[in-house]
Structures are given as C-alpha cells and as structure tokens.
Amino acid sequence: MLKTFSMYAEKIAHNGAAVGSHEGKSVYVHGMLPGEEGVVEVQKKHRLYLGTLKELTHASPRRKNPEELHYLSCSPWQVMEYPLQAELKQGLLQELFHYYADAPKATFVPASQFYGYRTKIEFSFSDRAMSDRVVVDQEVLRPAGRMCDMEGEHTMPLSLAFHVRGGGSARIPLPKGCVLASEEMNRVALAITERLRALGHPASHLKTLVIRESKSSGKLLAMLYAKKEDLAKFSVDDISGLSGFFAFYSTERSPASVETKELWRWGEDMLFERVSGLDIGYSRDAFFQNNIPLFEKVMESIASCVPDDARVVELYAGVGTIGLCLAEKAASVHGVEIVPAATAAAKHNAEQNGITNYVAECIPAEKMDARLLDGKDVLILDPPRSGLHPKVLAMIEEKRPQTIIYLSCNPETQARDYSQLSALYRIDKLTGFDFYPQTPHLESLLCLSLREA
Length: 453
Hints:
Layout: E1 3-8, E2 11-12, E3 18-22, E4 25-29, E5 37-45, E6 48-58, H1 71-74, H2 82-97, E7 107-109, E8 120-128, E9 134-136, E10 139-141, E11 147-148, E12 154-163, E13 171-173, H3 183-198, E14 206-213, E15 220-226, E16 242-249, E17 261-267, E18 270-275, E19 278-283, H4 292-305, E20 311-315, H5 321-326, E21 332-337, H6 340-352, E22 358-362, E23 378-381, H7 390-399, E24 403-408, H8 411-421, E25 425-433, E26 443-450
Parallel strand pairs: 4-6, 7-25, 15-16, 20-21, 20-23, 21-22, 23-24
Antiparallel strand pairs: 1-5, 2-3, 3-4, 5-6, 8-12, 8-14, 9-10, 11-12, 12-13, 14-15, 16-17, 18-19, 24-26, 25-26
C-alpha cells in the first residue's frame, strides 16, 4: 500500500538514501539531500519504508542538476555537488569505526574523474515505454518517440535500458547510454543494440549487454546474454574499438548474467591494463578494479604498510594485481583465488612481467590450509561485498599474522569483520577512496597491526 506525505531529509544513510521519518518510522528516499523537504510516495519493502521523491518543495543550495534523466538507476548522487559527496562518504566511513577509541580518523582520497571512469558496465534492454512517471528535479519526463502497437500497448524501438530504482521489472530507456561509461563504451553498446534492432529482436528475447574497456589500450569486449538459444548470428567485426564479442544463452531461472551456453564468439578474450608499471591481463569474466587511477593510489598506500622483504599471502587474489604490484618489495607473495581462469591469468601475468617470487593457488579462501599463514608477515584481503568468510576470520584469530591489509568495496561488512578482530588488531590506517563518484559507494582500506600481548 502506497502512502504520500511530506518529508524532511535529516541525513544520508549508508545505503546512499536520504533518511526522514513518518509516524515514528524511518523512511529512505534516493535523490534527496540532507536538509531538503519534499513530497514522497512510500511503500514497505523488505521491512524498510522506501520512498520516491514526487515533488521537491525545499532544495538544498548544494543540489545540482543531474547529467542524465536515468540518474536514480545508476548514480543517484549526481544531484549533489562533488565536494558534498566526498564529505558524506568520509563521514559515513568514520561513523562505522568511531566505536574504537584508538582508531585514527578516517581520511579520504577524492576522485579526479567524475564521469566515464567505469571499466565495466551492464545494460538491460527495453522496447516498452514506461507506464510510470519519472520525476527528475520536479519535471515529469516520459520516454520520447513511442508509438502504439495493434493491441494498444505503448511500444518503442529496442533500446539499451536500466532497471528503474524501486520500480520492480520496469526499465528506463537509455538513448545515449550512461555517462558513467566512456564515450567509446556507449558507442559500442549502441552499435550492438542497433544490430539487434535491425534484426527484429524484441527485448523479451534479451537479458543484458556487458561492455568492458581497457583504459590503457582503449580496446573493448562485449558480452551479450540472451534468453533464447536460437539467437541468429550477426556481424560485429566492423565496430571500431571492439576487440572481442561473445553471445550466450542465459537461463531465465536466474536474473543474473549467467553463461548457460555459449552461442558464438568473435575476436579476443582478454584485455590488458597498465597498472603501477605492470601489464595485467584479465579475461572477459574476471574481476578487475573499476577505477584505475585511484587504484594506483590505493597501491601506494598498501605498499607503505608492507615491510621490505615481507612474506605475503593474498586471499581473494583475482588475477593477481595487488600481489604482483607488491612483488618487487616483498620476499614472496602467495595468491589464493577461487576462480580457475583468474588463477591462470595471475600466473601468466607474473611470467609476462618477469616476476619469479609470486605463486598463485586456485582454492576457496575458506578451504585453504591455515598452515599457509605460518611464518608469513602480511595478509592481504580483498573479498567480495559480502566480506570475509567466518572460516577465514577463524584462521586469522588462530595464526595472527603481524600485519593485515583489508581492501573492501563494502565498508559495512569490513567494519563487521573488524569488530571480530579488534581485540587482536589495532587500526593503523583507515582511508576511503572514491572509486565510484556520483554513487554512494566507495573503496575502504584498513591497515591493521597485531596488538602487543
């Protein structure tokens, strides 16, 4: 049941939404700034009261116009001046760790590039005009160029799209792509969509289109996930900048872009990025950092916490980027990674860069032999958003390496994990890095040292 009422935005929550209250309950609304007032429409979802801004009645002086109409779907902080974004992220990070009296104040490294910084972006598709209104800065906007089909439904040409935040299955068309991606990424995505449109493919036959870009070489890979196994092959070799294309059937049993069956491929399977003086290769499906200039600053900070000739273990190592960047300073680096292709890439990257003190092992971090930590000086952690597995925390408590470096894309789970380690370790460094400007997300670096007995 929907309720509409006026709300005052008191602050920003860790999910990036503005927080207000109504009848003693907290209400979360994306697209509002602290100190603003507006009319919101609210529904209960997953035990939370989530609202949509319908009309802004008092605007913050730090509000700015968004760069695109679909900003709530990809980067809801586009309506904030960038200095406010940095202030809020630093404050939210500090709030997570303020319980620890001996913890240093959180520092924050802002972004230097505010748009076009992503190395990977995932689009959906739409060929239906939105039935719900989209409110952006008090203007009611409707998709342009729509027409009526024979049944009277509003249809439009096949378009790239994002899911509408809080809109269930509704999608908002993206006639120009998204400003978080580079012009080249958008150009390639739009060119592929034009081919699909010309072949008459409806959105119901398609799931997602993933574009990845090497910022060093400018090469791009594209992965199309279809809901039909009989998707006809089409040519992409004349799309400039595209070095590889993959078409997959992806089961509708999962909303995610899963590779149920490969339909066809063309071109290369790898991209290469120059990072801190090393050439790092990664495959189309491997994890790779999203903001290369800021990641290099992270590596400088990590290196300052690693003693010379340290014996290092890196869990959740991916294609080996962090460990390989530390190999020149360390005596040895042992990377542990669950994905076989990523482990193979890490070994290849070590060989290609002439690094002989790096070893890569393919095994889940929680299933490795805890004895691997014996005699090691530094443990590096870069887990997924869910944080550390309980078995990994148990290994740390048992083996107690002298130094832990924990890089996280989710400071909330990072703070949760540190709460279990705080009796054994103190925080030497707490730094946020704005890998994701225009969004509420950030990368957080914890450097920990073993407390004296």
